[in-house]
């Protein structure tokens, strides 16, 4: 357990050191995300006028969620590609913890850091739009974590694919935009869409943040469905990752880039 | 410098490889990269794995490290089955596989060392003294807080080695540790590799094309060609094995074609070279005595002998002999014939 804590501290420290040491890179990523929102917000107002205002809270919550999902999904998938390019992926593999534990720790650390960035971005969005949301941390944090779990699952899946197929950056960009579709899925009219990644969590977060609903006021089946996706997608992603790294070892391409 | 006189293992091997085979692809496209390789490595030795490009040495090393899954065969590291219990072997084995590319260039030297030690579960707060000693040992104390990207290639290579050592394993694999290094740094690293075994009883398996390095630090050499081991012995034994009583002779005037033909037939004379008025050639008499008959023959031809020099083979000759020609049967210790 102590060793795992040591590992977690080391991974977190490395991420934070790089973030602080290279602030331009970190801030420019966030600025681009923010710029994207501003374009949607002001561009949307110019085109749709007052019609946009009615759905603005939903857009803000959705954008907040997309920021975090995108960061969490991308963090895992991109990190495998980057580590392979740096020549450090095989070093991560050759640890007594095993690569899957290393990746789980990276996922936990990355998601926590990204959650912080997501909340910062949310504040910026609210200030920019002049809106206010009812953010009850006791509700938003568990719902947010359960929602992001499915993004982490997709991240694991594509991290595995990048071990096998190496250059999948274009595919990652496509998936990144597909996440928008998942977040904006019309789950109220098409019930089965609640099973796709992020959709149920996005729906519940929207309801709680713009309707002031608390966690315990959400119907149990809705929560159970969210918990189900939060378990199923990471499990599936983990399985794909395990399959991919075994296949890469059989093909002798684990550390290739 | 403690050198082992034989490749045979007197104690329990720290690495044991049996019938290791790797086939990439299937059907007609199948490539047998490693073909039934077997050997043991004793603790506290430096073993060089040599072979031309594509010989299968990287595949063999990566299979030993659990990074490539073998098609067949067994690998045991410190008594643990490396194939079924891969993560367990990483308590015993570390590797520097891509030299300077093994570390994070955006982190400082110290941050890298601490990170890689943590990957093996060592709390850097409790091992700071050890890390400082390692950094100092490799002469990087002034660069400890410098990002690796700002260091020279040789220094990066040293950081990579320090990070491998920070994991405190008994066995380390070094792939081309001196590649791209200047002479001074290479010599420095050579001394450090030898010290790992002599002072710390570590087992080092290194792969390199640098014959001087291998000859200087290795207790034993395994030469691989087309996926099979063609030689497995101490450097001294291998060189001795290939020692032929070859001589380089320089004579003061050209020989007649008939005389040249006789020398080629009886003394395996070859490599004729005209140097001004002189002629140089190499000869390999069939016995130690016959060098004298060769000299007599030259006198009968009235060709003045300017100089005669015995040719000493080195590991590079042995390597070239074994990997560029069809390997001839040899008396070797362990491994494939």
Main attributes of the structure:
heterodimer; A: 257 residues; mainly alpha; 10 helices; B: 337 residues; alpha/beta; Rossmann fold; Alpha-Beta Plaits; 6-stranded mixed β-sheet; 4-stranded antiparallel β-sheet; 25% strand; elongated; disordered N terminus
Quick summary of this structure?
The complex is a heterodimer of chains A (257) and B (337). With 257 residues, chain A is mainly α. Chain A has helices at residues 2-21, 23-48, 51-54, 56-86, 89-93, 99-129, 137-165, 169-183, 199-211, 220-251.
What's the CATH class of the domain at 15-92 and 169-241 in chain B, please? Alpha Beta
Quantity of strands of chain B, as a count: 14
Low-confidence stretches of chain B at least 5 residues in length (pLDDT < 50)? Answer: 1-9, 326-337
Low-confidence stretches of chain A: none
Instruction: Tell me, briefly, the overall form of chain B.
Output: elongated
Largest interface, Cβ cutoff 8 Å = A-B, 33 and 40 residues
End-to-end span of chain A in angstroms? 33 Å
Would you tell me the structural class of the helices and strands of chain A? mainly alpha
Residue-averaged pLDDT of chain A: 87
What is the terminal-to-terminal distance of chain B? 29 Å
Determine the number of helices of chain A (DSSP H or I, runs of at least 4 residues): 10
The percent range for strand residues of chain A is under 5%
């Amino acid at each position: 357990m102590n060793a795992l804590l040591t590992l977690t501290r080391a991974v977190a420290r490395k991420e934070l050191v790089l973030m602080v040491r290279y602030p331009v890179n970190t801030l420019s990523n966030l600025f681009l995300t923010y710029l994207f929102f501003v374009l949607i917000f002001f561009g949307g107002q110019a085109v749709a006028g007052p019609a946009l205002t009615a759905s603005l809270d939903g857009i803000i919550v959705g954008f907040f969620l997309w920021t975090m999902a995108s960061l969490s999904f991308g963090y895992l998938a991109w990190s495998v590609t980057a580590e392979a390019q740096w020549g450090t992926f095989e070093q991560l593999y050759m640890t007594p913890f095993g690569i899957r534990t290393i990746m789980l720790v990276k996922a936990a650390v990355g998601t926590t850091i990204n959650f912080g960035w997501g909340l910062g971005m949310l504040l910026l969005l609210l200030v920019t739009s002049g809106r206010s949301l009812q953010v009850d941390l006791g509700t938003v944090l568990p719902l947010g974590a359960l929602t992001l779990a499915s993004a982490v699952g997709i991240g694991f899946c594509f991290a595995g694919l990048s071990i096998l197929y190496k250059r999948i950056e274009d595919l990652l960009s496509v998936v990144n935009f597909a996440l928008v579709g998942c977040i904006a899925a019309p789950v109220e009219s098409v019930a089965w869409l609640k099973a796709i990644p992020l959709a149920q969590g996005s729906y519940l977060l929207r309801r709680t943040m713009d309707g002031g609903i608390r966690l315990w006021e959400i119907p149990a089946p809705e929560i159970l469905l969210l918990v189900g996706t939060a378990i199923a997608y990471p499990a599936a992603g983990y399985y794909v990752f395990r399959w991919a790294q075994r296949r890469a070892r059989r093909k002798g391409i684990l550390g290739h880039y | 410098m403690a050198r082992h006189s034989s490749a045979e293992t007197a104690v329990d091997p720290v690495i044991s490889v049996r019938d290791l085979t790797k086939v990439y692809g299937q059907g007609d496209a199948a490539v047998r990269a490693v073909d039934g390789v077997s050997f043991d490595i004793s603790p506290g030795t430096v073993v060089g794995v040599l072979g031309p490009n594509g010989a299968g040495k990287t595949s063999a090393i990566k299979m030993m490290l659990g990074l490539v899954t073998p098609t067949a065969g067994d690998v045991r590291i410190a008594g643990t089955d490396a194939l079924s219990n891969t993560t367990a072997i990483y308590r015993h084995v570390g590797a520097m596989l891509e030299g300077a590319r093994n570390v994070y260039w955006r982190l400082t030297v110290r941050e890298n060392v601490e990170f890689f030690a943590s990957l093996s579960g060592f709390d850097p707060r409790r091992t700071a003294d050890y890390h400082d000693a390692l950094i100092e040992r490799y002469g990087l104390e002034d660069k400890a807080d410098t990002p690796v990207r700002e260091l020279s290639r040789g220094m990066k290579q040293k950081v990579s080695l320090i990070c491998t050592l920070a994991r405190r394993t008994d066995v380390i694999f070094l792939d081309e540790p001196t590649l791209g290094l200047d002479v001074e740094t290479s010599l420095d690293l050579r001394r450090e590799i030898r010290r790992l075994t002599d002072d710390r009883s570590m087992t080092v398996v290194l792969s390199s094309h640098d014959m001087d390095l291998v000859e200087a630090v290795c207790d034993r050499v395994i030469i691989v060609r087309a996926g099979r081991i063609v030689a497995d012995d101490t450097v001294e034994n291998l060189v001795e094995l290939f020692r032929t009583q070859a001589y380089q002779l320089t004579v003061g005037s050209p020989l007649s074609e008939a005389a040249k033909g006789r020398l080629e037939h009886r003394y395996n004379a070859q490599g004729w070279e005209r140097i001004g008025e002189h002629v140089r050639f190499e000869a390999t008499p069939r016995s130690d005595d016959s060098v004298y008959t060769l000299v007599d023959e030259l006198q009968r031809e009235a060709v003045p002998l300017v100089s005669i020099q015995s040719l000493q083979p080195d590991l590079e000759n042995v390597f070239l002999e074994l990997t560029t020609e069809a390997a001839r049967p040899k008396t070797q210790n362990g491994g494939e014939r």
